[in-house]
Design brief:
The protein is of the alpha/beta class. It is about 35% helix and about 15% strand. An eight-stranded parallel β-barrel has the order 1-2-5-6-9-10-11-12, surrounded by eight helices. Strands 3-4 form a two-stranded antiparallel ribbon. The two termini are about 30 Å apart. The mean pLDDT is about 95. The structure holds zinc ion (ZN). The site of zinc ion has 8 residues, from loops.
Length: about 280
């Protein structure tokens, strides 16, 4: 059988605002509602940031706790992935929500440039975040903005800093970082297979207009796909995306075109080695 495709929806991020697209969910209530629609459309992972009352990114553990609770109630079974990447420069505050024991958290293992600044991930902070994830039984998603980040994940796995097979996400199309380059993408896949095994799952995310490109490459190549308003607020040059669910639907359509079943939350948990939590 063809491998099911896990769809991750990155609902909010640190940057997009209502001015960019009114559908960007900012409050916890909006985030829960938007995620539920995306879950019903086929997403099985919710990648989450939280915002403060002014809409600015925060790592406030209380807000993360409220969001996690809302998602567990309204999207039972969906994998909740909290971002530790949203506030570069904030040090250990970035991991202050890990004691909430979400299913997953994002983990950047190296630094690179972002559109207007350096995305700082110093080695001591990376080690600390990885240790906290081990301590609280949180599965990391390794954010690979560069080839070296995949090899760093291997080194961390060998040293026992990561449990099990790392789940690597390739991020392409961030201005001043790795563009959506097909040869590099193929080499990323070959590197994951060489280091972590032929069946190691991997995911890909593209920023802005690269989102749909990376979605198609990932679906066609047997990987998993991330979409959502965090990475891209448009359907195309002329139209804003009406919702996170609409972006999930684009990936569902690609899955159909490439004969990939869309992973249920149960299948997604099995693929990622996460416990099957029955809805309560
Ligand atoms: Zn994020």
């Amino acid at each position: 059988m063809t491998k099911p495709c896990i769809i991750c929806v990155a609902i909010t991020g640190s940057l997009p605002t209502k001015a960019n697209n009114p559908a960007v969910p900012i409050t916890i209530a909006e985030q829960v509602e938007s995620t539920q629609e995306a879950f019903e459309a086929g997403a099985s992972i919710a990648h989450c940031h939280v915002r403060d009352d002014e809409g600015k990114p925060t790592s406030d553990p209380d807000r993360f706790a409220r969001l996690k609770e809302g998602l567990e109630k309204h999207c039972p079974g969906m994998i909740v992935q909290l971002s530790t990447g949203g506030r570069s420069g904030a040090g250990q505050a970035r991991g202050g929500m890990l004691p909430l024991r979400p299913d997953m958290a994002s983990l950047s293992v190296g630094s690179n440039n972002f559109p207007t600044r350096v995305y700082e991930n110093p080695p001591d902070l990376v080690d600390w975040l990885a240790a906290e994830m081990l301590k609280h039984d949180v599965k990391p998603e390794i954010e690979a903005f560069d080839l070296s980040h995949i090899l760093k994940a291997k080194e961390m796995q060998t040293k026992g800093q990561l449990a099990g097979t790392p789940y690597v996400q390739f991020v392409m199309g961030v201005k001043n970082a790795m563009p959506a380059d097909r040869d590099v993408f193929d080499y990323y896949i070959a590197t994951v297979k060489r280091l972590f095994g032929e069946d190691a799952p991997w995911c890909a995310a593209g920023i802005g207009p690269a989102q749909i490109v990376l979605n198609e490459w990932a679906v066609a190549s047997g990987g998993h796909a991330r979409t959502g308003l965090e990475d891209n607020v448009r359907l195309d040059r002329d139209r804003l995306a009406p919702s996170n669910a609409a972006l999930v639907q684009r990936v569902v359509d690609l899955c159909e075109r490439y004969a990939r079943p869309v992973a249920s939350w149960q299948q997604a948990r099995a693929i990622l080695g996460l416990p099957l939590r029955q809805p309560t």
